[in-house]
């Protein structure tokens, strides 16, 4: 019995651990993709999708929120396993596994109505002050416009999208360059009078990322498969509709979409 009992206990522990691993999921404050309210805690489209993925793979998942810079560090160093949302970047691709593109979204300019109506094209940005969340891929996109325009407008980096929008409201900046879905959500919730500048900006897509320190290629593929199954069941479309977002993932294989080239467009005067 002294030999059998320890063996039995070990088998129970192994069975329980095999049922589901524990994962730390982190996102940055980016409403409606991922955010935290005092009452309900972490919410957003990324949360809803990852909660379903964790349930589908029988994984135990703990959700955290952190500034973007900390989020990236946690994923790089293995302090967190999964992150969302994150835009495409060759440098980031060497550190994280990227899921198929999940969200269709865009970068856009926002301004007070009196300023917005004066902007007809990129030339109209000359001599204006433009705030942007930094460091971020939004900033990288704006830098491309800045170079194209021979640096004729000024860029002001901010630690959050909200700071950028508020400084446009109080007339510190002429424009904010931000993720359109995040800016529109903030404008609606805060009854702001800021408006989107039409005709300018750039489309982009966001993915779910997985730490290469915590996932093997096979383990990452397991989540990829479950993500695709969620799309086939229309669960992703339901989540996107709930948060007024658009899903990028569709029934066409990603290889076929990639063969046509990226949907991201270079900054031009008349995109």
Automatic annotation (TrEMBL):
* Domain named Solute-binding protein family 3/N-terminal: residues: 23-247
Q: Which domain of life is it from?
A: Bacteria
Query: Short name of one Pfam family for this protein?
Result: SBP_bac_3
User: SUPFAM superfamilies annotated for this entry?
Assistant: Periplasmic binding protein-like II
Entries under InterPro entries matching the protein: Solute-binding_3/MltF_N (IPR001638)
Q: Which Gene3D superfamilies match?
A: Periplasmic binding protein-like II
Q: Where is this region: Disordered?
A: 247-271
Signal peptide range: 1-18
Keywords from the named record: Signal
Q: What is this protein called?
A: Solute-binding protein family 3/N-terminal domain-containing protein
Organism of origin is Bdellovibrio bacteriovorus
